[in-house]
Amino acid sequence: MCGIVGVVGDDFKVFDVVDSLKRLEYRGYDSAGVAYIKDGKVLIFKSVGRIDVLRGSLGEHLKDEISVGIAHTRWATHGSPNDTNAHPHTDCTGKIAIVHNGIIENFRELKAFLEGLGHEFRSDTDTEVIAHLIEEEYKGDIFEAVLNAVRKLDGAYAIGVVHSDHPDTIIAARKGSPLVIGVGNGFSLIASDITPMLRYTKDFIFLEDGDIALLNDKGVKVFRMDGKPVDRRIQRIDLSESAAEKGGYKHFMMKEIMEGPQTLVSAMTGRIKDGYVKIPELEELDLSKITRINVVACGTSYHAAMFFKYFVEQHTDVDVSVEVASEFRYRKPHIDDKTLTLAISQSGETADTLESVRLAKRLGSNIIAITNVVGSTITRESDISIMMNSGPEIGVAATKTYVAQLTILALLGLQLIRERGFWSGRHKRILDNLIRMPEIFENVLSLSDSIRALAEKYSRYEHFMYIGRGYGFITAMEGALKLKEISYIHAEAYPAGELKHGPIALLDEKFPVFAISPSDSLYLKMKSNIIECKARDAKIISVGTSGNGELFDISNDVLFVPRVADELYPLVMAPVIQTFAYHMADIKGYDPDKPRNLAKSVTVE
Ligand code: F6R
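That is the input. Now the predicted structure with fructose -6-phosphate docked in place:
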């Protein structure tokens, strides 16, 4: 997740801008840069690596007094992490500098258009297009130029722009990516969140999508994209910096669960066109020729892979085999050049998944990686990489990246369904549900307080059984993993129909059952399983579909999510099981962000 800061005012030095940027380090980044205006010229310093490297390259320039400055931490999406791709980016004249967070979907078309007009590009980024577009629009009024340029952009952006002819002005705009303005006495600030600005002010304007702001020595003015001024309320926020970097939450894990709607948007951006899924990264691949798909992954990524198997096999003629990578790598799998291998890894560095990729490659399989880290080993060793675009996940347990994986796998499944000739009204409804999912998620995330109360009630239990059928089993597996890894409570996951083949012997009043019971095609079977568990005196917590009052009769506690297509319940229920595990860990006094014995990237066997 890139970070932006910017200052306008008389009392700043370059040091202040870099120091503010440092306060966004917690968001994660691979490179950093700063631009400011001195003696009528834009000066830019940027480098791959830590902000301290940037500081080193600035040297004495840190003491430069400035009236305007912008800076950026980059988390690569377009183009690998290197000095050239680091922000700020500039136009052909070098008079404009821009920092950007987000993804410009139509950057290829815009770049071709601008190259046709003679603009020369230096980086592989989508951001540089905006600088050249502003240059093209510039007729002496920088605000007008930025306004006209951003009107041509599709996708998501938060930007800060400076121009050497306007040494006391920043233009800021947002659509889909966060940007906040700090309002001070004689100065104004911008940043991706309030954390780096809290040292200077407690007064903030939260820009809304489609806002564009003019910050100069006279203060801040906000406009809409039609150029009309708009009044945005100044909000006073008195938070500490450490609370602010977690978005006001106690832990990163909760902040990252709450980022679900944005995660969904980022995973879908640029991948749906004219009512169908079209993942640009797959352009060269003929999905109609594939006979089998082999998926390798570990942990949470493995659960996302299981979702893909259920979905694709239900709706197409393609067989999907899913295997835990640590097993796959030592087997003699029957795959060949007609088998597509999908490797799912948020970190892109999991040793077992990488070895599985290498094995599948030796056997002739084409490899698609789904990952969150640009430039990670998996992206270098795979034929195609589909990026999750979730921004860094700081909590060790996967939460928002699981949401992104499910989203991308649903998109991939839908593209496969269409390209293999199985598309129907039902698939259109699934896609419509997916598009509405960010809004549906808001509703589910509002359950956090009731889930906290539930966790309080059950925090003394030492064992939990998670059960589900079909897609519900995927949620059960992920729910049990989340609970055990952060709250250290013993949790097992079983397909509900398996219970009577052994595990039901465990159940009694001390062994609650978390029953994943959406109103889908297998609900009646689930209901029988719940009744069987209840007959063994187990307490039942059901997660069902809103409106299913029957669940109250057979359960001790019920949580509801909105009705969605059967296939999408793993997505809509993900925040429920994650939030339950989070509150259990917090109530028991554990730090959910740093569970014992676990690492974010498992780079050893
Ligand atoms: C669970 C979790 C792990 C990872 C697993 C694979 O919350 O985070 O189970 O899912 O270690 O990691 P990646 O996806 O990086 O390959």
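The first helix runs from residue 14 to 22.
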